[in-house]
Every structure is written in C-alpha cells, then in structure tokens.
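Lecture 7 notes: from sequence to structure.

We start with a single chain of 262 residues. Read the sequence below before looking at the structure.
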Amino acid sequence: MVDGGLAELLTGVDVALAQHVLPAPAGRVGTRSGAVLSAADSMRVTMYGRGAHGSMPQAAVDPVVLAAMIVVRLQTIVSRETAPGESAVLTVGSINAGSKANVIPDSAVLQLNMRTYDEGTREAMLRAIRRIVIAECQASDSPREPEFELYERFPLTDNDGEVTDRVALAFQEHFGDRYREMPQQTASEDFSDIPNALGVPYTYWGIGGIDPSIYGTAVEQGRVAQDIPVNHSPTFAPVVQPTLDTGVEALVVAALAWLAKA
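Now the structure, written as tokens:
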C-alpha cells in the first residue's frame, strides 16, 4: 500500500489506530506507550561442506555437524552477549541439510529469526551471528565461505505517548477493570509502516481471545506459557464472544476518543 502511493491518496490524516487479538483473557483490552512490539529480522545462512558416503565421514566436511554446532553456539548471543535488561530473541526456525541417511551432504541451510527493541542491539546481534557462523565454518575447515541473506524485516512498533494516553483513558472509562496495561510483546507487525509513511502518530493495542476460565486455570497452575496457545500456533482459536464484541467496541471507543478532540 505504501509502495503503491498511499501517502498521495490520503491527506489530512491525524492519527493511525490498530488492534490485534492476543493470547489473553477474552474481553480484556490493553495498550502501552512506547515500544510495544519488537522489530524482527529473518536471515538465511548457507554453510558449505564436502559431501561423502555416510560410511566414510573422514572424506567429508560434514555440514550437518557444522550446523548443529552453530545452532548451539547461537544460543549464547542472547544469554551471554546481550545485557540482562535488554530484551531480545534469537530463534533457529529451520535446518535443512541432506536427503538420505547414508549420504553426507555438501551444504546446510539455517533460517534464523531475531526480535529486538533497540537498533544497537540489533546490529550487535547481526555481527555476532556472522562472527559465530564464520568461526565455526573455519573450525570445520569448510571449503567455502558461508553466505548470509537478510530476507525479511519488520519495524519496531513504538506507540506515541499522547495518542496512547488518550486512547487508554477512553478504554479505562469504557471497559473498567477489563482494561490493563499491555505487556511488551516480542511479536512483530508491519502496521507502523503506514503511519510512518504518512508522518502521523499512532497507537496499537491488543484484545484478549482466550476463554477466561481456561486462562484462569492456567494461571492458577502456573502453566500459562505451556497451556495457552499463542498466535500462529496450530491450536490458537480465539473464542468468538466476547472477543468479537470487545474488538468492535475498542475500535469505536478509540476512534471516538480521538474524534472528540474536535
């Protein structure tokens, strides 16, 4: 939409508003000022080895073992190189190498995903990934340099303070104790591309979609992370009500709060 000229089509825009369903109790609404959703980067890393028959590993440079060593070492970037107070996530979501049990392949591909709230942290993590991969390839005597491809990025969602305060006050008045401050999320969004392109402030909030009784049981048992399905998991299925009504009310309340300014 932005690339298609949205900024030229829309004039006189004051504010941008957005919401998303989250794994919280249905009927609940939450927002927060400042960084609310992380930036995200996806990277494809290709490591090269030397293929051989599975019975003759001495003739190979095994990229499967190389990839395994890299995956383990990458875990230290957040745990040992990122300051404890700085939120960051590094996930290896895909490993692809070989096609047969008795054949050592000649390459392996990792797909990584990073979540950060600070550009300095992001750059440091990208440098660390390259350093670790290159060093492990050298340690394994890889015949070729590894290849790195950054192929997808989502910006930081950074809620404007004034707009968020106005909307939060309206939510408190309308929803009462169903309104809570939204915790910072390591999920990511491209919504902010639109207000950033339009040069307008924005706020983004979440609504719950989990059956409150199921959520409450998980809280009592201390198993929220284990028992509550998160967005994009195969079992994530928001209950229709009160999720649907809450979402409609939140959009209307937020819009009226801003329109009432006039």
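The chain has a mean pLDDT of 95. Keep this in mind for problem set 3.
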